[in-house]
Amino acid sequence: MITVSVILPVYNCEKYIFESVTSVLNQTFSDFELLIIDDCSTDATLSIIKSINDARIILIQKPKNSGYTDSLNMAIKLAKGKYIARMDGDDICLPERFAKQVAFLNANREVILCGTAIQMIGSDKVLKHPVAHEEILTKLCFGTSFCHPSVMVRKEILLENNYDKSFEPAEDFELWTRLAFLGKLANLDAVLLQYREHPNQISNTNTSVQLNNAFRAKLQMLNHLSVLDSFTKEEVSVALENVLHYSFAEVKKSLQLFTYLINKNQKTLVFQVDLFEEKASKMRIAFLKRFLENGESNTLRKLLFLLTRISVIDFWKVLNLPKKLSLLTPNNN
């Protein structure tokens, strides 16, 4: 039995595909197959792939362009490996990636999905998501907790839980919200993938759709706290998403929402209480900062409004006073 099936959907990525495929083939862990699913590329992507001579490559050419999510689900059905590793045609795997993820999953049978930290190609910027399961669950209520092309998942889990095409291009985020309650999730702290940002990425060409579908995924997590029984989708969106204008009524409702989420979780214990309260409180402060920066121009009126509704400590955080005061303090060194 093959240990790892690498699934790599491609479409018109001739600039980067050779480096991407080569980084997979050069892994120190060699027991894998590489399933490349071409979605009817019109550039030189196919010819470049065909020029690479390695028996581990299995190239599937789709007869019709049907999208990224369909390619992923097709590959999952064809995969022979115990684990499925994701990869994209514009990213680079570091040599130890598969070895470290396989070792971690073998040693932690309760973990069904394992991601890694990533480095942005062309910069020193490193992105790390939470490592432990409970932290990951809490973060998923407010944003994704994984870099999609870095993950490795147990195959049987994906066979029973395919990607949902209706959430494309946030199909990965939605999948994490379902897997979150089927087993433990984890991230390795090590940088094992280099991630490329460029204008032709689906996330950049379909930004508004991605943001909307990502919000729908957040709602799936928050509805474990029955949030939609007490608030509308629009009210939740105002509190959690970037909005250009906030009315005083919307701010009141949003503050009620954050209080509701914290209190509801204290009663139901869906998420680890301290972690969830800390994260929800940070999101509330971020929301109030946006309120001060956007909407009505009368800042004094907004400050007076907040003074009657939040604690003095939160008021200081909203104004960022601790940081401003630290900048004014003389350096004694």
Assembly annotation? single chain
The outline comes out as elongated
* Sheet with the most strands, sense and barrel status: 9 strands, mixed
DSSP strand (E) fraction? 15-25%
Estimate the helix proportion, in percent. 40-55%
Mean pLDDT: 93
Distance between the termini: 61 Å
Our count of helices gives 15
- Gyration radius from CA atoms, angstroms: 22 Å
Tell me the structural class. Answer: alpha/beta
Low-confidence stretches: none
Query: Order of SSEs, N→C?
Result: EHEHEHEEHEEHEHHEHHHHHHHH
Strand element count: 9
Question: Could you explain the architecture of this structure?
Answer:
- With 333 residues, the chain is α/β, with parallel strands linked by helices.
- 46% of the residues lie in helices and 16% in strands.
- The radius of gyration is 22 Å and the shape is elongated.
